Amino acid sequence: SSELTQDPAVSVALGQTVRITCQGDSLRRYFASWYQQRPGQAPVLVIHGKNNRPSGIPDRFSGSSSGNTASLTIAGAQAEDEADYYCTSRDTSGLHLVFGGGTKLTVL
Amino acid sequence: EVQLVESGGGLVQPGGSLRLSCAASGFTFSSYEINWVRQAPGRGLEWVSYISRSGTTVYYAESVKGRFTLSRDNARNSLSLQMNSLRVEDTAVYYCARVLGSSTWYPFDHWGQGTLVTVSS
Question: How many CB atoms sit inside 10 A of residue A9's CB?
């Protein structure tokens, strides 16, 4: 079982906004980071820290956090955003890293 | 260009051993922390191990603690993950991933392409 909980699947209409959430007690203390993974590819960092996008990540991706929940928002989802998204953070002990179970995003 | 290239995966019987390598290029290897992350077929990502810049601090997931050993050779720009007493549930693609330079432990700003480890009789 994972200490970070994500919805297994989310769908969004092309061009609409979607929020993917990650819940866990450790998020009250540690920032989450978010990764996009397309089929057959290695994960790619899309958001880290408070709301930081690595170079090359479109500005439609943003992050936020409140209490025990971190969120990844995609404003104006594109077909190429269809992928699995994973959050990660330290666990409640601070001694290990944990990943959420992942959210499969479908763009309709 | 930053590159991380894993190697050493393959088929091994339960109880056997395997040594994975990660060769780094395109950056000052000794200045970056590195992690290993694995992904079982059709499953999510699982953190495996972390190593500090100097190699003096190493952490492991409980699922591999006591069986896996992570080390690095900064002179050769490489990492080694020695995996012993392998179990069927260790079957996965193993990725090495670099920690963002300004951060500690995570996030991972560059990943290798992964190497597949299959544990089966």
Answer: 11
What Rg do the C-alpha atoms of chain B give, in angstroms? 13
**SS3 at position A96:** coil
Q: Which of B59, B107, B114 sits opposite A42 (nearest CB)?
A: B114
> Among residues A31, A36, A38, which one has the least CA distance to residue B107?
A31
pLDDT tens-place string over residues B98-121: 999 878 888 999 999 999 999 999
Specify whether the CB–CB gap between A100 and A39 falls below 8 A.
Answer: no
Give the distance from residue B48's alpha carbon to the nearest chain A alpha carbon, in angstroms. 8
Alpha-carbon torsion (A68, A48, A21, A7), positive or negative: negative
Kindly report, residue by residue over B44-76, the tens digit of the pLDDT.
999 999 999 999 999 999 999 999 999 999 999
Which two three-digit tokens encode residue B101? 């330079």
